[in-house]
## 1
Amino acid sequence: MIKSALWLATGALLIGSAWFLTRPLSPHAASVQAQRAEAEAAEPACLRRDPATPTLEAPEPPAGLGGRLGLYVAVFDPVTLRPLRAVVQDPDGQYPLASSYKQAVLYALMEQVQSGKVELSERFDVSEADRSLGAYPYDGSNVVTLAERMIHNSDNTATDILHRRVGLEAVQDVADRLKLCHTRLLLPTKTWWTAQAGWGGPDFPQEDLLHAAERYATAPREQQLALARRLDERARESNADRLSRALDRYFESDRYDPRIDLNTQNASTPFEFAQLIAHEFLAPGLEEPQRQLFNRIMRLGFGQQLLEEKSLVFGGKGGNGWRILTMTGYYQNARGEHVVYVFMNHESPQVYTLPETRRAFRWINAAARRLAEIPPVQQSPAPPLSAPDAP
């Protein structure tokens, strides 16, 4: 029997940037902003893939990877933040994000540090209400320590404390501002597990969980947020150890349905999540102190050692769960290209998916090699990113 406390807190890595500038713009930065504004003006209500982007189908996935598989590997223009060429499989299918969503919490956190809403010196004790599944931080941990644990250790409790500190809606807003209509980032980890276990009260009754999850996933954003807040109150009333045992019973019962994963957990599509990553790494929003801190923390994540291409700058975050595996990240290669990769696997035949990580990266690397088969499109000039200082 695979226990939830074993699979829940693994994976790791990075991402970061916001949108506003408070200092005077250089002529180059003003030009870059003008180009971005022109590009954004042409976008529809929901961001969609541009059929003009040179795109190839992904190579066959390695033997052993099964279930629903999505992949998006692309070179992005650092000015327009649009893909210049891409290799894809099921880029518009929606998948649970698992712990890969945690990079969006870090991004929202850095925005609020910059605006003064959050102080890096703030300290938190871990209460029973806070504690999620798996290991958890010491009492008195500050914002930076929690952020490091969230990315490096994929610490669920640290994530939930920070997610609630910035606000459920603040993390969702990271996606909504980019018109990512199929990206849902509302719930802390303990909160979605509370729903899956059937402990969500009248909004998520155990006897009708499938339909309740569908109602939540398809509700308008304001209704989703209201449901998320009520569910989060339930989660904070739950004991993490008892919740873990309830999840084991759910996953091993005939009540388990992968559609409940998709409709309760935070979710996105390979294409949309790649857009989110490109924005966070390449958009000039965070001021230098926050950008450096973001980069330093995100370097603590996982994946760089499994990439074939040498990366001058790297950041990524992985996640795994019951029949779920995600690996996501950004790197700048030796040619100066800005590459984003998103791998998503749902309904895997493997219950415990972490051993599939190397196969996932073999597929990511094969897709990156296939990118070279597409004639390069000249990217807009932009200052090259430099590697962040070592932590």
## 2
Amino acid sequence: APVREITETTKAPDWTWYATGPGNGIQLSSGRLFIPCDHAEAGTKMFRSHAIWSDDGGATWAYGDPVGDKTNECQAVELKDGSVLMNMRCYEGKNLRAISKTTDGGATWGEVTLDEELIEPVCQASFIRYSGGPEDGEDILLFSNPASKKREQMTVKLSRDEGESWPVEKQVYPGPAAYSSLAVMPDNSVGLLYERGEKSPYETITFAKFPLEWLSEKETSETGEAR
């Protein structure tokens, strides 16, 4: 297909910095293509998250209201009730992830709150729904980030109540780590691509693959990596 310019319908005139994700977009049960984004506004230079969407397979696009102040890189999951939960990097100075819900597909957003269970060093994170095969019936949320006030301790967390709590977690790597991306693999295992290193988080890009059951196991390998 030919390249098309869609800036006018996806970006307000006073937005300067602009980025998608980073991470994946999702398709809602309605068929809507939903892409988490973030931007900075001229004058205030305030970072805010927002979403863009398409209801016709990408032929036309629209954007919604900003989610809230001091939010930035973000990922979204559609909840079972049809609302969409946005999980965002936050600059409130409390080292916690910000969250907000939309009930109208991204046009407007509810109150932004901080998730006390999701510690962050003000960094990107990955947030996805895991829907396993019919043989296991799993339908849960997964989250990965450096679970620390520093960019270290890459960790994967699991929620069985649509993000209300995160009682299951497993450290994948104890050392310096930063951005990550979760994916459900064809065999229903979990894939995690992430930045890591010995002295800096940005020395290597590493891929870990593990069965969902590994998250609930108490033992880790000697290196602290997924097995």
## 3
Amino acid sequence: MTSTRQRGTLPLILALLVSIALTAVALVVGVPAQAATAPFVGSVPAGTVLVAGSVVTSPNGQFRLTAQGDGNLVMYGIGNRVLWASNTAKASGATFVPQADGNLVIYRAGKAVWSTGSSGRGAVSLVVGDDGDFAMRQASGANAWHASAYQDRVAAGQVLLPNTTLRAAANSGLRLVMQPDGNLVQYDGTRATWSTGTSRWPGATAAVQADGNFVVYAADRHAVWSSGTPRAGAGQLLMQVDGSVVLYGASGTLAWSSRPVAGLRWPVVSQRITGRYGDDRGVGHVPRYHQGADAGVGIGTTVYASGTGTVTTTITGNATYGNYVVVTYGVTTVLTAHLSAINVTKGQTVSLNTVIGLSGNTGQVTGPHVHVETRVNGTLVDPLTILSFR
């Protein structure tokens, strides 16, 4: 006769056996376990299914790869700055799978809506670095694929934690590293070009303060180095493509830099100005103020970069500007318009003597010239006040 205790035990044993059997089947067919939405730190094993709300942080927590509910996979940097996105925001309900074949895939309803296209290369994990980049990592330590994400600036109120790296551009060797030993070091490749000399303070952090001062604090919160700029106001710190670390104040003016920074130059070898900033170009009683300054030069005149910067826009056939180029130099952008030819591409790093195009009369013009338009932190300023003639 079976006791009551035995009758209660048998169902539990059967349930356990079924659970073991299902687990075995899952292992055989390679079904990945779904990820919890709690943050992963540093890496995720290949085969993990990331669901909406899953987060993979860098080892020090300053960078976050986020699987969003709208279907977008986004890398957020310091200050929630968007460093990279899959641009799949219309794929709500998606899952995000770093696969063992080396491919990172976003699935919705069983169909791939985005991938890195790196299948066949093999990977053991998805890793997130303290520089904002992330990669499908192979067993050898090489990358099957990486996003080339980076952060080049931090705003006032933000802090650089140990191991955090700012990079001038994607895959650039120009970088600023808050080292675990407490030293804040600027590198060009493997060569250190500047440092705060604070290596005796392991665990130190670097803060861009709201008063305009840039300070390295020891772990016990006493200052061990500063830029000495407490009156500059809330601005931002940039690791620039010219190899300088520059602190800008509230007005966008240079407050401090790790090395001397050359001023920006006028884009043509000519001092003839045929139109000035603020001129009224309106018809009748409707004012329309000129947003830049015009260099009166003939068609085919060489147009140069104003310094070392990055080409951020190249446009042809615009109704107003014709063919034009925008180059970013730190917090300043210089637009040159009405070009007859463009000689650079978006993302290209340029220097003072780089030919970015040739002057022309494209777009809305009354004659050949180069329209020069400058902005500091997005605000229009008179080009003749910040660009010096060649």
## 4
Amino acid sequence: RDSRILITIGACATAGGIQALRNSRDHDALRASVYPSPQFIDALATSTPIADHVTVDFELRGCPIDKGQLLEAITALLKGRKPGIPDYSQCTECKLAGTACVMVTKGVPCLGPVTQGGCGNLCPQVGRGCYGCFGPKENANTEALVGELAALGADRRTIRDLFGGFTAGAPAFAAERERHDG
């Protein structure tokens, strides 16, 4: 109420974090499968982004967030301007860094085409597919990516699990995860 600007920081704040995987499961059964004495665990049944509860002015995504983006946001706010944070996909970061596309060259499943850039190309530069830690980019075409993943041989479970990482609670990723559950 007293803040003029609210910025959420990290995947937990912007998308509910990895714990958002519980949102589509039976809370009590899940708790019992994880903890030896579940009766002593008091936890919320769901994990939701802060933006589901209050108006958020700006999101710094990622797990972990990018230090450069944090400094850019602070500097921009001090100077009275909008932070210049990437709005392109992870694929653009790979191309800018000269990293070969792991989906094309190795057939490795990758969320890069639908993930907001900003992580510094961490996973693809070591030959792994992007895990989507920065969440879906705006207007992410997850359906088209799923078609490509299936063409590479990814089954329903692999696709479901791919969309179930750090930003599983982000609507675009949650929808794909639910479509492939079962």
